[in-house]
Amino acid sequence: MKKLLFALASTVAVLGFTAAASAQDKAKICFMYVGSHTDGGYSQAHDLGRLDLEKALGDKIETQFLENVPEGPDAERALERLARSGCNLIFSTSFGFMDATVKIAEKFPDVKFEHATGYKSGPNLANYNSRFYEGRYIQGQIAAKVSKTGVAGYIASFPIPEVVMGINAFVVGARSVNPDFKIKVVWANTWFDPGKEADAAKALIDQGVDILTQHTDTTAPMQVAAERGAKAFGQASDMIKAGPETQLTAIVDTWGTYYIKRTQLLLDGKWETASSWDGLKDGILKMAPYTNMPDDVKKMAEETEAKIKSGELKPFTGPLKKQDGSEWLAAGVSSDDGTLLGMNFYVEGVDDKLPQ
Amino acid sequence: MRIELEKRPKVSVLFSIFSPFIALALTLIAGAIMFFLLGKDPGYALYSFFIEPLTEVWSLHELAIKAGPLILIAVGLSVCYRSNNWNIGAEGQFIMGAIAGSILPVVFYEWQSPLVLPLMLLLGMLGGALFAGIPAFLKAHLNTNEILTSLMLVYVAQLFLDWLVRGPWRNPGGLNFPETRTFAADAILPEMVASGRAHWGFAFAIIAAVLIWLMMRFTLKGFEITVLGQSERAGRFAGFSSRKMIWFSMLLSGALAGLAGISEVSGAIQQLRPVISPGYGFTAIIVAFLGRLNPLGIVASGLVLALTYLGGEAAQLSLGVSDKVTRVFQGLLLFFVLSCDTLIHYKIRMVWADLTDTVKDGGAN
Amino acid sequence: MGIVEAILLTVITAATPLVIAALGELVTERSGVLNLGVEGMMIIGAVCAFVATQQTGSPYIGIIAGTVSGALFSLLFGFLTLTLVANQVATGLALTILGLGVSGMIGEPYSGQSGAKLPQIVFPFLSDIPYLGPLLFKQDLIFYLSIVLIFAVNWFLFKTRTGLMLRSVGDSHSSAHALGINVIRTRYLAVLFGGACAGLAGAQFSLVYTPQWTENMSAGRGWIALALVVFASWRPWRVVIGGYLFGAVSISQLHAQAFGIGIPSQFLSALPYLATVAVLIVISHNRRTTLINTPASLGKSFVPDR
User: Between chains, do C227 and B5 touch, taking CB under 8 Å as contact?
Assistant: First the structure.
């Protein structure tokens, strides 16, 4: 059967085989996404970064991407295909791609790899991440000012350190304004299920929450908040269209700045492995315009943002207690990055038991 | 116009052989039209899909990695379906097999011995079989529909795995990320040949396919499966127990799905993660039917389906088409194969007569 | 609005698409056809409803587009399984794969947009009834349609001659054929009805549940609808009970979390599925009642002798 398969397909191939060669002298920058490039959330944010890169350096590079790549052996295969297809620099954009990226990076020492949100690196493998928690701290402060009930709702995806860090930053921020502020957490156990996210949002609002924030990817919670007259924060991209009178601000992932920086280094022959964890000051995340809030709150948010950018304020700075009341950070001490990256405990004020 | 089928006196050998090729030809034509409409070069697109992945050694290894679990699961399912037991929860049995097999390298990671790997494989089969035993028990003794119970249990298995790798089995040295410790060398299923990373899971799949084919063809058990599948009553007259058959077929397919699970984890992933299968258990159902529930046919259909996944990625890169195009293309292929198989058992006639005589009776509205 | 009413409202929104799709599939299965492609037809309905709404500005045209597209898509299934007697299980699965792919292609330019929500239709006076009013008489058109559907399907299947014919086709296609009933035509219509219902359920996702289009937004709910049909042992009213029960369990696990009870969320998320299995066991324990309601020809192909 296979012989005929060959014969059939190659006939067709010969008949129509024309344009395949591409400009070889341009550097090829490749991306691998875990979701669809139009998912409206995480993967799309990376794809927008890719487009920014094309806009900035389009005459010197070309880009390609593979989308909806499942984690595991499929990721390994997809990366190998990218490496073999002549990519010079490959951005592997999901945490779950980490081990696959390590293996393929060892196999292709001449190709450069960059892995997002992980912690492993090698001579030709860098990793990068964004300090989303800086934005969450600002959101917490805004929530504490704007909320009338004193309780915010948090729609979380999966209990990984990244998400726990976000919850903690939000609470620390809120409690810096109102020490009695509380949050309720619902784990949706999905990154992407608009129906379930909407249900979680309704459940939280029904239980007396008037501010929603989310660490899942769709705009469904924003729509629910708009419908129920609550306020909400956008995630990954500016979601103002889903809630023109609802969104207070949003953490906007702007990976493009990082992609341009690293590609430029590659073009200059100066690319080196690194572990970078950029924040607001580097422009890897931005705050969407502060809207639907009183001017004094807006002013406070802008001031906090400026302080974080200048380095004057670090969100995780003591005195801070863990959820059980034990001391975590003494007054004036800031947390080290290692603790944050492996965060598996709540700070005081979270009304939830961390899934272990 | 109306299409009429006429049953052939016996199965057409000619069409048994040629129907897949007719289907393929139709798929190629439909695919060419689709790519043309999308503004892509159809010839190059089809080349990327079907030929390019076969031209390089590394890619052939990847084909074996992708096809292995599909074939292994589908072969077990074919026994189920032939005996009229509709196990559609292979995905869950795959996961539970992977979990059971991983007990050794994750919990007893200090124990190192050449026995680890064989025991893991056995545990994997046991785990898959036990999990398939739940719907089997419910069907055999409580008369509960197995389609649904097996499907519902998939979600339970997925969430159980999720809880394990985030909780009790989390790698203590992994910065709290949701994954178990990586398996020690003893617990890793080795590669078959040095030229690439295809592991022994593919060999297991081929061996299982041949064994089950022999069983179906030459043993009384095979006859029993076929008879009970065609008519439970006839089977009872022949002295076969449909209750025992439920147990046999479900446990067998569960064990093979479990073996696929532990092979995948031990050979390809080498640790447990929240998600270890991109839907192998569901895709295998299609593989089983594309192979016409014949174990050797399943080997072929598993390879073809795996090829479309690889080809889809190749096409994304070389043509810049989105992966939705891949899924549409897969869907088309399935539809053509399924409809062309009609030719094996039936002659197709176009009838141009008027429809008046058929419109009289009622129907749903 | 009290918290109980609020929770019930959420449950209704979550259960409505399940009930609609399951009722459609129930009619299909009663005619002896097992269409596992509900998820695929649903997602096609969702994307077509959304695109039509965005194009015309009218969610009511969206409802029609969703329903019609679901029916048309099911025709593909009908052609393969009824005319070409392909295997129903495999064809249904293939329909789901194709549906997810096609919907992704159609919806690509629309992803990330927020759509108009289907407006509520308020019944004067009735909506003022305490408790019940806001739940039952201050809803959208699709909810009212779902209620009509429940009664209509029940009446059609058990009170009309055509319904009786449909059931007889499902119970024994050869006897029905011998009685002069056109089996294939009946099944085609039943498949179309199932497709239309799945499409309408899909429209509920993209117009009411979450007024937006995102790829794969049905997220496995088509499979739940399929489970409900068997769970209900092919009785319309039990589909309704099952649908609302499933909705209630999935919503209450979210509320349980928000209350902060310390059970791992994965166990709570698994609850609806375990509950379904448990109820299935209880219902099917009595072999006789199950057998009476199960369409005996379910999943079997029929070729008329000529």
Answer: no
Boundaries of every domain in chain C: 3-110+132-293
Task: Give this complex's ipTM.
Answer: 0.86
Helix ranges (H only) for A207-314 are 220-228, 256-267, 295-310
For B111-137, the pLDDT digits (tens) are 888 999 999 999 999 999 999 999 999
Task: Tell me what pLDDT residue B89 has.
Answer: 92
User: Which pLDDT belongs to residue A24?
Assistant: 52
Q: How far apart are CA A56 and CA A53, in angstroms?
A: 5
Residue pair C161/C287 in contact (Cβ under 8 Å)? The answer is no
Q: Which two tokens stand for residue C276?
A: 């379904």
| Cβ(A91)–Cβ(A66) below 8 Å | no
**Continuous H helices in C119-160:** 132-136, 141-159
Q: What is the CATH number of domain C3-110+132-293?
A: 1.10.3470
Q: Are B93 and B258 in contact (CB under 8 A)?
A: yes
Chain C residues within 8 angstroms (CB to CB) of chain A: 3, 6-7, 9-10, 14, 104, 108, 111-114, 117, 205, 209-212, 214-219, 221, 250-251, 254-255, 257-260, 262, 264-266, 269
The whole-angstrom separation of Cα A314 and Cα A239 is: 26
- Separation between Cα atoms, residue B228 and residue C287, nearest integer Å: 20
According to DSSP, residue B225 is labeled: H
| C257·A352 Cβ contact <8 A | yes
In this structure, how many other beta carbons lie within 10 angstroms of the beta carbon of residue A174? 29
Instruction: Give Rg (Cα) of chain B.
Output: 23
Distance from CA of C120 to the nearest CA of B (A): 27
Where do the domains of chain A lie, and which CATH numbers do they carry? 26-130 (3.40.50.2300), 132-252+284-351 (3.40.50.2300)
